[in-house]
Design goal:
By secondary structure, the protein is an all-alpha fold. The protein has two domains: 99 residues; 61 residues, no CATH class. 60% of the residues lie in helices and 0% in strands. The protein has eight helices and no strands. About 11% of the residues have low confidence.
Length: 203
């Protein structure tokens, strides 16, 4: 009975294993191999969002963070102005506004933690995760809409401090600012969709 024997050649170097990402080899955990100082802590982002919008600002979503802060502040102002005034137009809607305020506040907290997680995955080079489109680095670049808003607020305050103009009308007309903000966001979304559709047609 013959004995099978396989000779090994000590001079032959075995082939190197395939790199991560190829068939049969699992990618290492991003948390174990990727320690980028730009990474964000989801728990910290959620905790900071107890102050609405601050968690989004921490991750880098400055526009979204400011919008969240404005929405919450506007709801609180509307509810405080109508509290105890049964003849107010908003009095019947106070329970609905309160429910929406609680929902939006909790959504704001969850959204910040989720975006921090997605941001970390994007930094780690997730194959199916892209960097969020509205992520913007903090800079001193110009902003037409932001400049108009700051200029308008400064002008209104100047009327009060320099010319002693009463600001009672602000209590009645402040919702117009929300209307303009909403119109701007809708216009921006439409332009972005048109630009996306144009780029897809060219491809």
């Amino acid at each position: 009975m013959s004995e099978q024997h396989t000779d090994t050649n000590p001079g032959v170097i075995p082939p190197a294993p395939p790199p991560y990402g190829q068939a049969g080899v699992a990618n290492p955990s991003p948390s174990a191999t990727f320690q980028d100082p730009r990474r964000k802590t989801p728990f910290l982002a959620s905790f900071l969002s107890i102050m609405p919008g601050l968690g989004q600002v921490y991750v880098g979503y400055y526009q979204r963070g400011f919008v969240h802060a404005i929405v919450v502040a506007s709801l609180i102002a509307a509810m405080a102005g109508s509290a105890g005034q049964t003849d107010s137009d908003l009095w019947p809607f106070l329970p609905l506004l309160g429910l929406f305020l609680a929902f939006f506040w909790l959504y704001n907290i969850v959204d910040a933690g989720r975006r921090a997680t997605l941001y970390n995955e994007a930094l780690a080079g997730g194959s199916e995760i892209e960097m969020p489109k509205d992520f913007q680095s903090l800079s001193i670049g110009g902003s037409l809409f932001g400049g108009i808003c700051i200029g308008a607020i400064g002008f209104i305050l100047l009327l009060r401090t320099r010319f002693n103009v009463s600001l009672d009308w602000v209590a009645e007309w402040w919702p117009a600012a929300l209307v303009m903000l909403g119109a701007f966001l809708v216009y921006k979304a439409i332009k972005e969709r048109q630009a996306t559709a144009t780029s897809d047609d060219e491809i």
